[in-house]
Amino acid sequence: MNPKDMKYRELFSVSLELFALFGYKKTTVQDVADRLGMTKGNLYFYVKNKQDLYLKTITHALDLWRDSVKQAVDRETDPVVKFRTMALKSVDYIENNAMLRQILMNDPSIFTLSSSEDRFYEINQSAMTIIQEILNQGIEAKRFHPVDVEHVTQYFFSIYVMFLIKTYVKSDTSSSRTMFLEALELNIRGLLLTDGVTPA
Hints:
Helices cover about 70% and strands about 0% of the residues. By secondary structure, it is mostly helical.
């Protein structure tokens, strides 16, 4: 990793923490620069303004989330195991990342079911690619029913977004994980072919 990439990672890590702790309005570019031991002028070498810093910080955090899930999925070979791993790793990652959870609570609009309002459309599309690949593998291996992969991908991603909103935006954590796990197993059973034979 070159020094500039390392600086970006440090910058986004620090700004994520400050945005989580103090919110967007109260966090200043000067706060971030001070924490990094640099001048505000130097920080503008990396970002245009506070809004740009915020958007790049969230994008970086979502990239790390997606990459973590992708790495876990790629270690598996069976599409059923891949699908379960994808779902569980997605939830485990956010449950183990207090700063990102706080950001979601502070800014509910990070996740939206409306593509026209999605500020992070490209990263969410790349996350959906993971689902598409697993579905395609499962269909090719005759482990999953033949389905409209594009629409089913949107369906699964929407379920996941609704879970995130219910759990971390609405702060309804009491039964959310149990609900998610039950829904996961229900959806896997719905995808599975019986003995690899397509029903008549």
